[in-house]
Protein: Hexosyltransferase
Organism: Prymnesium parvum
Amino acid sequence: MQCAPLPAALPSRNLPAPLPPPRPSRRLPPRHRPSLTPPAPPSPSRLSPTHALALPPRLFPPPPKQSLASTPFPSAPEAIPRPRPFRTRLPVRLLAAGFVVLALLGYSSYSAPRLHSPWLQAGRQPGMHATVRMAGAADFPADEAAAPRLASSQAAAVRCAHAVQSSAEWARLRCGPPPPPQVLQLNGEWGERRRRGRRARPAERARNASALRAAEESGDGGGAMDCAEMKARHGVLVGTSWGTLPLAGQARWAELDCDTRDPSREAARALEREYLANYTARHAAALAARPAARRLGGGGGVGASVPTVAVCVCTTSRRTNASRLEQLALFSIMLPSLRDSLMPAAAPRRTARRFGFRLYILFDAGDAFYDDGARESEVRAWLADELVAPLARRRVRLEATLLRFENEMRKPGPAFNFMMAAAFEDGADYLYRVNDDTKFVGAWADVAVDTLLGFDPPNVGVVGPVCPEGNTLIMTHDLVHRTHLHIFEHYYPPIFSDWWMDDWISHVYGSARTAKGPFRVRHFFGHQGTRYEVDQAHASRLEAEIESGRAQIARWLAREGPRASARQRSAASAGNAEGDP
């Protein structure tokens, strides 16, 4: 008996229907899209009919409705490709790299303050410049003699810690001498920053070499010789750059105190010692020689109808190439802002009736720009047209004069003392010392005078504006009553010829008689820069001068305080009554 033959194809109704293909993805292109179809099972054309029937239905999908002989041989299953990573565009990558660079730069610049701030807050270091933060009476101990001279506030530490990264900024903020050797060992940032400074110019290298020869000729084979050798060999610029001096040499430099033993400055120090020996006589002779054309008022300002406020400013064209008035900060910044601050639009209306104003502008004899007859006439004409006349039209009284001073030391200290004494001699009641790159911001006369009148006794103290530039821990501009020159022989101690004058006056009166603001100024010290050399050795005299000044104030108060209180209160009330509408 013969068996029936097998059918050519299996009936499709007995097998499950195939699954539909997956939907294509919209995120990846077709060539990157992975295949979600399972691999094909072995083709039934390669098997015998018996074997095909023995396979489970789940692993053997139904073939198409055609003969086994006509079924094509399938290709090998395609490998599943991996999705390629997401590609960012080039600008995005550049932006990310820029953020990384900025973050690294910010971290490197902030690393030094974190290391130096404990040193700045730790307490007084030997020979370090003393600083007291300006604040209210609550920030000072009851015993002012026990008040620390070194700023302990976080603000002071942060400012000086940031300044330690640059010797020029450290010197500008007057944070004191360079860090001691133990600090240099903790953090090399000071040395690294200064070592990356500019190299000495040929003229500076020549001066360094001459200083070395001078040290050799002086016979001092110790500290002065070592300092001169380091300066000449490594191109050190005192207060500016370490040159190529390594950290060990910087520690040696600080140990020898080479900043104050610079042989190249010995001639200047000898001139200073000789000048200070005859300071009082020179000062009196300069005041007596002042011609009548450079004087204002009739003197004896106590009997004037209204109090007089003298605005005093020193100016110089040194280290500038100015050929016109507008190229100097005095005529482009300071004087226009002074005029605007006295206008009724900025100042209260009663200011014009309450005060009279005087302007003293001092320049050095021999100044290449100012010390010329034609130039002086031009300056006077500018003052009359741009300052005096506009204020007179608004009923504000202002007089102006020019002072010529024989400044042998080429330092601001002697010029300041001469200028303030000239205003005192002319009878000014209030003296306001400012800089030629100062910009007045808003009204200031009423609030400053009222603050001085509020002291006990009245007018014994100092006030200053809020200035966001420079060292904010002290007053860089100061206003006092003429009583200041009854207490002290000179406006500033003569020893401070360049810096530390404003440090002294910020601290000598103590917290009870010192006030800052609320009137404001801006200080554009970058307009013409520093125009004189700074002797860092003067910092060691600051504490002694502050203590001496406080002793003079105490003696004057014990002798004249009660009478001054009664006299000045009556004069102040009379002056306010005349100034009120």
